[in-house]
Amino acid sequence: MINYHPDSQLLTSYVSGELMTSFSCAVAIHLEKCPSCRHKAESFIEQKACHAFQFEESNGDSSEFDGMLNAILSDDGIDTPPINYLKEMEIGGEQFTLPRALSKLSFGKASSIGKISRSRAKLDEGSVRTSLMHIEAGGKVPQHTHKGYELTLVLSGKFKDESGEYSEGDFIFLEGKHKHQPVSVNGCLCMTIVSDSLHFTQGINKLLNPIGTYIY
Amino acid sequence: MATATRLFANTHEYAKALPMTLKSPPQDLEQLLLDVALKRDKNAFSQLFKLFAPKIKHHAQSKLGSQDAANDIVQETMTNVWRKAHLFNPNKGAVNTWVYTIMRNVTFDALRKIQSNREDVVSEDIWPLIDIETVKPMEEDHLSTNLLMKHINELSPEQQAVVKGIYFSGISQEQLAIHLDLPLGTVKSRLRLAMAKLKAIGAHL
């Protein structure tokens, strides 16, 4: 049973393609596991599509695109349905098949401290760091705080902290100064996205693809 | 199937001969896209193109800033619509939404490329266009799909339309009969003949 979900604002930004790659992947993975959020996301994208494509009686002049249209029509090939190869990865001595959204990302070599292993995704997102974190059965993450934010998405297994217990699919987004100490009795694999820098942007903006914000 | 193309041997004349305006309730869009998917209908595609291209450009310009970058998004999005029309499934959502997802994916990859200089295309993994079975490494050979496509392209245009409609667009035989304006029995027998022919030419089904 999934108890922690991305909020509506995050889902809307996700369907519009505005989130950073890391967060887009995390939301995609949650949606694969969560029918109710999937349903919400579908209705958000329908709204976005209706908004982007409002056709009037007269659609103006599209002659500037004639050359493009002819170029497209001159090639009659079609695309075959893509095949998605899932990525297998060993972390913390266990073998995992990663979710589809992560299948083309590259990950660094896992580093382990005690029962905690971490492998960082090569995403080039500045101060935002994305990784896979494996907790072996009985493992404890030392108590820590974040200045920025921390997203933990459970890919398999369970862990708990002072506030509750989390299982596969749970999308736990924590901001600001909170302390927690995750513990996993039987082991788990999570995706984490952490930003420790102080952000000048507020709310959803700090999760958006920064290119968008440079331009505006 | 190729009547329209024969009428306009020169594709440039072809683009000019189309009406500039079109009222477009959703079912019209769906009919147009299915005509592209099943019959490679250039006229239908041109109508979709004229409706969507200006809107896509407007949207892309607000995301990317420059005219040139926006034109690239239009070109890539509409090329995808042309080349992937057979993957559209009318039971899964509206044409508007389908085109939007393609535009969103193309724009996302373009932004990612500017931002991180990474060439890896991840949008397809985050937002797959169709519900496909994901495959564990080494279980499936990419070549076999290409080979199957090659065999399908050897069928007659009528048989291709039926096979692509049923297996790629995922629509029912009844819906296909309506869209192709054929009796259901004809669709069924064409499909049966097409499958027999595919087996005969050695396709692994």
Automatic annotation (TrEMBL), chain A:
Top-rank taxon, per record: Bacteria
Gene3D superfamilies (alphabetical): Anti-sigma factor, zinc-finger domain, Jelly Rolls
Domain ChrR-like cupin: 126-192
InterPro entries: Anti-sigma_ChrR (IPR012807), Anti_sigma_zinc_sf (IPR041916), ChrR-like_cupin_dom (IPR025979), RmlC-like_jellyroll (IPR014710), RmlC_Cupin_sf (IPR011051)
Coiled coil stretches, renumbered: none
A Pfam family of this chain: Cupin_7
NCBIfam families linked: anti_sig_ChrR (TIGR02451)
Official protein name in the record: Transcriptional regulator
TrEMBL record, chain B:
GO biological process, one term: DNA-templated transcription initiation
Domain RNA polymerase sigma factor 70 region 4 type: 148-198
UniProt domain RNA polymerase sigma-70 region: residue ranges: 48-114
CDD domains: Sigma70_r4 (cd06171)
One Pfam family here: Sigma70_r2
Keywords of the record: Sigma factor, Transcription, Transcription regulation
MF term (GO), any: DNA binding
Keyword Transcription regulation among UniProt keywords: yes
InterPro entries cross-referenced by the UniProt entry: RNA_pol_sigma-70-like (IPR039425), RNA_pol_sigma-70_dom (IPR014284), RNA_pol_sigma70_r2 (IPR007627), RNA_pol_sigma70_r4_t2 (IPR013249), RNA_pol_sigma_r2 (IPR013325), RNA_pol_sigma_r3/r4-like (IPR013324), WH-like_DNA-bd_sf (IPR036388)
Family note: Belongs to the sigma-70 factor family. ECF subfamily.
UniProt-listed NCBIfam families: sigma70-ECF
Protein name: Sigma-70 family RNA polymerase sigma factor
